[in-house]
Amino acid sequence: MAVSPSSSPPSSPRPPRRRLETGEVRRRSYLFDGLGAFSATSWSPSNRSTDPTPFSWHHVELPKGGPYKLTHYAQSLIELLSPPLKLHEILDLASNGPYCAQQLDGTLIFRVNSGGPIASECAIRLAVRVTENSVITVSVGRVPRLGFSDQNGPGSLLTEIPTVEGEKEGRVVIAEHVLEDLLLMNHSEEADNPVPTRVSGLVVHIIDTHVDQLHDIVTRFEMELDAVELQLDKGGYLLRKQMLDDRRFPKMHLDLQRLLQVVSHGEQVFPRVKEKCASKSWFAIEDISALEELIGRLRRLKENLGFLTNRVAALQAGLDSWQAEQINRKLYYLSFLSIIFLPLSIVTGIFGMNVGGVPWTNQRNPELKGGFMKVMFLCAAVVLLLLLCFMFPSIYVWFLSWRTNSALKRSSSFNKRPRRNVLNGNLRGGGYVRI
């Protein structure tokens, strides 16, 4: 797997980003001075420093989708991170499932890697290696708001005074698709991220962006479900049939289960991360409280995912009941036709017997020329009798409803009739009398 070339020299505040091509791995490297400033540096994770005040962060973004396997990702990590990482550390970062462990030298490694298909949007993979003066993160696909922007560069789009397309000039024009993307975000841009002054703040920032990414996916699911419910309310036979053929809701239910698995991994790993970081002297107490708040957000997000799963199951149950109703209706029509033609086939079978004594079958007798018409009248009478038997319940129900409505109208007109009361010998208007 090819690896992108090294980023720009330290003089550049932010390395230029290229478009991710097939088989390419993106990487970023930052150096923080511990005073609220940072700079983009060249890729050198092997550099070690005994001073904890300036700390470094190296991030590897592996390509999402394509015919890639875990072995391909492990090979890329070996090329990029070895040295200083050993093979067991790289395997800990690249493997599936939840993991949190502390090595003998105090290095903390944790991951929340989903075991689903890598190309799936809900298969989120994030692994972190933390030491006293360095952080190494590995993700599959882009994590929104994970990086930092130069404070001296252009400001955030959210701080501008916007205008709609085609309106006033001199302002920042906001396109419609940009507004749609901003409405789906639960966070600000990279330019609004506060620069951490210690390693513990950087760890909290990484976990915070992970929770925000999960929240963004849940928000998109909610908006998609709202749109689907509106389509089902307005749509007809073809729309429901298309949703059943595309297996729309089973796929959504599977994605929700994958996302629920990622949230469950975080619910298992992050409390252990908080417990292990609480014993470290370089991890600030306020950052421990921030981790506790993020764990609470993750638990609330898990409850919200349960509600979404119930909504998807309800919509799928509604489609299944509609499909069963359509099948029952077709079977009803088929049964109705078979009931009509069964007596007719009996009549025609009787008159088609090649035996003597069958009435109206002597073709040479001039007195029996109307036999065919008599048989047709008999068949029509049978069909009318069957139709009357089918229609009698509907006629009876209509008659009962008409009789009930008539009785209610008579009762209502009687209640609205004005009454007069005689009180102390004087005739006074008493208004309406309620019954």
From TrEMBL:
Cell location: Membrane
Lineage per the UniProt record: Eukaryota, Viridiplantae, Streptophyta, Embryophyta, Tracheophyta
Protein name: Zinc transport protein ZntB
Alphabetic keyword roster: Coiled coil, Membrane, Transmembrane, Transmembrane helix
Organism name: Carex littledalei
Region (Disordered): 1-24
Membrane topology note: Multi-pass membrane protein
Superkingdom classification of source: Eukaryota
A single MF term (Gene Ontology): metal ion transmembrane transporter activity
